[in-house]
Each structure stands twice: as structure tokens, then as C-alpha cells.
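quick one, 151 residues, struct below
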Amino acid sequence: MGLDQFVYAIKETPDTKVDYKIKTLGDPDLIERPTEVFYWRKHPEIHGWMESLYNSKGGTSDFNCTTVQLELDDINNLYNDIMNYKLPRTQGFFFGDPVYRTKEELDKMTKGDRKDAIEEMTIQLKEDLIFIEKAKEFITNGYYLFYDSWW
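---
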């Protein structure tokens, strides 16, 4: 068990920016199978950021197994927050440890643990930036993106 996070792309115009039900195989209304754009496993900071976005767009449910639309402005804001270390610290039983560590947290670690944490942060930063580029490409090509998670 754990936090699984997905971004899907669809071509059909969604009727809502939150709580959109992504159609799957077997759904009689399925026009086009959604494309999985990106997947994270236990990235609590991204999840917290997406939950805040969900709430700002009018979402009111528990932020689990529900969706929020990602528009170009959202992707640009996410990029800025990643680059300026402004992703929210987010905790949950199944979420795992924070990926991005503060200087204070790094300073408290042993040299070996600090090296491992910095390496993990570097890898995650590269993956997050890959997501940003993919998301922009899909949106530019006329797709609608939705974040979904399950924990």
C-alpha cells in the first residue's frame, strides 16, 4: 500500500475541473482510452500541491481517488514552486517520507545519509521536470490533463 499518483490525458472536453470521472475500458461512454502521462510513487509534496489546487478549483471531497484538471497555468505554477522549493510538506500514513529536504534537515543527517538524500532529491527533481515538459507538450497538442491518486 502507498501513495500512487497518476496524470492522465484525454481529448474529450471535460465537463468539470474537479472530480472528473476518467473513463476506463468497459465504460459504455468511452470514446478514447485515457493516456497515462506520468506516474509517481510516494511523492507527498506533489500530492499536497495537487490537493491545494483541487481545493482552489472548488473540490470538496477527501483528496483520494478523485481528480483535478491541470491547465497550462497550473503546470507553470508547479514548475515555479518546484524550482523555488515551495512544495508543501505533506504527510499521510501511506505517503512515505518527504523527498525534498530542507537545509536544516540535511544538516542534521550523517554525511552518508545527507549524500543519499541529496542524490534522491536530484533524481526526483529531474523526474519532476520531465513531467513538466511532458505535461506542457500534451496540453499544447490539445489534450486535457487530470491528476488522480490512490492511497
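The radius of gyration is 16 Å.
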